[in-house]
Amino acid sequence: MKNIKEAIISLDIMPRETYDKFSKFSKLQNASPDEIWKHYPSTGLNNYDSNTMVLEASIIETYLLVNYLKDNNIKARFWYNNPLFIHNDDLYRIRGNEIIKESIENLYFVSMREALSHPFFRILKIILQKRGGDLVKPNIQTMENAGCMNKFYAKRELYNKREKYLGDVIIPFNITQRDHEVFMKYVKENLGDKIVLKKDCVQEGKGVIFKDLTRENQMQSISKILNSHKTKDREVLISSAYEIEREYRCYFTQHGDKKTVYSIKQRVNSEDIDVYDKDDITIYKNIAVKWHEVKTDSDIFKFGSEITKDMLEYLSFDTGCLEFAKTKDGKIIFFEVNQMAGPLPFAGEDTKNMTRYYYSMFDNMFKK
Q1: DSSP character for 272?
Q2: DSSP structural state of residue 283
Q3: 96 three-state secondary structure
């Protein structure tokens, strides 16, 4: 690790309500990882107490980071809602009527989640590095694409293995309203009656519709989502709607040639709604979800780890949560890589595995 004595942790991505809750739990700045996890409800247990616990993963992740920095003798400062500007090689902060030139010698500027995509931060990274510091975050390459939820970024990297991991996909470009009928006829003939349309640069479960093309009056909602690809960074992907046997959510890091899977969760969706009857699907709102821990000594964990590590051969992500499914006919279908997925820790062994995952992430961020 570089000769760094101080880190600014940017919390600007937090909504005000979350930031207020973060401040309320400031005592966690001096807590151990095990103590920090006790304030985050374990998946599958109904033990949430709003007085002592938080549901927001970003709060837990930040306090884990503070603990990590403390172990490396780096002082942490939090910034929230700070007006900033760069002038030549210097960083300035506006505080009320004051303009403050910040000392950035040997300084880390840190964000954990999907901040730092603005061009401002690419320049900030340059001037920090000139002064012996750095701008750090998980998956620094997400500064170059549309953010941590850009599923197309991963799909582009996997496209040479499309038949193995992506299945049949159709990606429209510049399809106008007058083309929709003939285009959807082609989709039906090549992908089948049941399809999924995704605006793939937005969060999972938003801008996703399932369609059974044998039903009547489908084109209005289909046209709405097809039109969205004309908006910047809102590509549309269309795929078959697969019959899913098992879904995998795999937390990984890769440092050079070392690929490690720390924890795997399985998701089971309720089947009490007709997904083809909704114009938009929102996970948890429309579909009740249950998560199950996969034990590290199980065959399911071994299988999920092997598939994850194989996909990572083609993916540039250094850390994250890779999600895929096994279909009822035995296919493996890649869903996405989330830069920062909610950790969903189970008590005991899995909590310790998730701590190892975060600390490996921090090692990669700070190039320890």
Answers
A1: S
A2: B
A3: coil
pLDDT tens-digit profile of 268-322?
Answer: 776 767 777 777 766 666 677 788 999 999 999 999 999 999 999 999 889 999 9
Q: Mean of the pLDDT values across residues 211-237?
A: 78
User: Which helix or strand (DSSP H or E) is residue 210 part of?
Assistant: strand 208-212
Contact (Cβ atoms closer than 8 angstroms) between residue 226 and residue 172: yes
- Cβ proximity of 251 and 341 under 8 Å: yes
Q: Is residue 287 within 8 Å of 270, Cβ to Cβ? A: yes
Average pLDDT for 354-363:
95
Question: CB within 8 A of 78, min separation 6: which ones?
Answer: 8, 9, 11
**CA–CA distance from 353 to each of 123, 191, 252, 263, 366 (Å)?**
36, 40, 11, 6, 20
Helices (H), the chain: 16-24, 33-37, 57-71, 119-130, 151-158, 162-165, 180-191, 219-227, 299-312, 349-366
Instruction: Residue 158: count other Cβ atoms within 10 Å of its Cβ.
Output: 16
- Quote the pLDDT of residue 54: 93
Chain segment 239-272, per-residue pLDDT in tens: 999 988 889 999 999 988 899 999 999 987 767 6
Which residues have C-beta within 8 Å of that of residue 41, sequence separation ≥ 6? 47, 48, 53, 55
Q: Residue 23 is encoded by which pair of tokens?
A: 């401040």
Contact 197, 234 (CB under 8 A): no
> For residue 138, what pLDDT band results from cuts at 50, 70 and 90?
confident
106: left (phi over 0), alpha (psi -120 to 50) or beta: left
Burial class (CB in 10 A: 0-12, 13-18, 19+), 103: exposed
User: For the chain, what's the residue count?
Assistant: 368
CB 274 within 8 A of CB 364: no
Amino acid at 119: P
Strand partners, 292: 266
Q: How confident is the model at residue 131 (pLDDT cuts 50, 70, 90)?
A: very high
